[in-house]
Amino acid sequence: MEKNLMSNIAIFYLNNKGLKLAKEIFQFFPHAKVAKFSQDEVKRSWEDSSALLFIMAAGIVVRTIAPLIKNKKEDPAVLVIDEEGKYVIPLLGGHQARANELATTLATLINATPVITTSSDINNLPALDLWIERCQLFIQNPSILPKIMSKFIENKKIKIYINSDLIRVPIFYEHFQVVKEAKFADIIITNKKLEVNEEQLVLIPCNLVVGLGFHDWITSEEIEEAIKQVFTEEGLYFEGLKGVATIEKKAKNEALQEFSRKYGLRVFSYTPEELQEVKGFSFSPIVERVIGVSSVCEQSAILASQGRLIVPKRVFKDLTIAVAEASYYVKGKVYVVGIGPGSLFYITPKAINAIREAEVIIGYKTYIDQIESLIKDKKVFAYGMTEEVKRAKTAIEYALKGMIVSRFRCFFNLKRDWIRYNSG
């Protein structure tokens, strides 16, 4: 969802008319490669380009790219433009490769019409697949996703249940309704197994930390078996595991490292002094006497998660296990964008990318009016003169909700606005 819209674009033309249009497009995308069409050149560009623009008939493009197509996660965006520059058609990668975004942007810049066919876009709805990707949620039952997306398109609303107050994701309140019970939801965001029906989509946040205390002779298989047993018995999704935590002297244990590498987990390690700062959990006099810590598994889990303990110490033959839940949130972003002297022609590619990537646009009304054609599908806050602090505050508030914000501002005033906002 946050791929660079302007990077590694290849533009192909067939004749002089197409070349003229390619040169016009190149002015807006100065890092693009412009080449005369050939199947060999297309093959070479397929692997290392984020987008391929073809100025020619769609049929030629379809026959050329057909053998190269792999899947929506790997393929570049493919767009077709007629030689007159009247229509821009995203042919492949509408969402995943952001072909729809590029088509809309390009059409605005060359005064063409974007021909968008994906349902969410033509219905002015957020793309659920991109929202899930941006939130980095694991889809537990992906076969349900097409049904949920169809329901969203039909009803223009979707009901979401979030099972923990530590889980925060961007919510588009115009279209997302947060419900208090899982049974009423279309989408359930949870790290704990709940009773769901076959029509509900389950999304798993990766925010669980396992704390471990163990003997040096433990094996990776024993660690994995014990953790999976605890997760099964406690009704937790193993896919929600973010990392493992332990005392510093155990962190480099080969069995622990092998298990962590297998599942791509982060290993958190702490000194006895750091662990002892965590108070109020179970106490083992033997462990306290040997290593100076009362409960390695619980204390390390809490320290690593900076959250709360959800599974107290479980004792196995050669190890102890505790599980903690960390805060889970999607980081917002604020772009401060300069839009040039007033014409779209003078906006830099990076500025265009920031504007098109943003979900929320904030700025002085006069500036907003200058780029209206680029932001028709965005949530827009247009302010008048002397409202600089209000603009800065709104940008920060939406970023803290996990949104991507573009704020138009004269750069020399940004520091002043920030100081005024923070001083109340």
The CATH class of the largest domain is identified as Alpha Beta
Beta-strand content: 15-25%
Q: Note the gap between the termini.
A: 34 Å
Number of E strands: 22
Mind summarizing the main beta sheet?
6 strands, mixed
> In order across it, which strands form the biggest sheet?
2-1-3-4-5-6
- Which parts are unreliable, with pLDDT below 50 for 5 consecutive residues or more? 410-424
Overall structural class, as computed from helix and strand content, comes to alpha/beta
CATH architecture of the largest domain: 2-Layer Sandwich
Overall mean pLDDT: 88
Number of helices: 16
Total count of domains: 4
State Rg.
26 Å
Q: So what's the overall shape?
A: elongated
Structural features, described:
The protein is α/β, with parallel strands linked by helices. It folds into 4 domains: 9-122, Rossmann fold (3-Layer(aba) Sandwich); 137-204, no CATH class; 208-326, Nucleotidyltransferase, domain 5 (2-Layer Sandwich); 333-422, Tetrapyrrole methylase, N-terminal domain (Cobalt-precorrin-4 Transmethylase, domain 1, 3-Layer(aba) Sandwich), CATH 3.40.1010.10. It is built from 16 helices and 22 strands. It has helices at residues 16-28, 39-48, 58-65, 99-110, 119-122, 128-135, 145-155, 220-234, 254-263, 272-276, 285-291, 296-305, 349-357, 365-370, 388-400, 414-422, and strands at residues 9-13, 33-36, 51-55, 77-81, 87-92, 113-114, 138-139, 158-162, 167-168, 176-178, 187-189, 201-204, 208-214, 241-247, 266-270, 308-315, 319-325, 328-329, 333-337, 360-364, 379-383, 404-408. The strands form 5 sheets. Strands 2-1-3-4-5-6 form a 6-stranded mixed β-sheet, sandwiched between helices. A 5-stranded mixed β-sheet has the order 7-12-11-8-10. A 5-stranded mixed β-sheet has the order 15-14-13-17-16, with helices on both faces. Helix 8 packs across helix 9 and helix 15 crosses helix 16 (414-422). It is elongated and about 80 Å long. The two termini are 34 Å apart. Mean pLDDT is 88; it is low at 410-424.
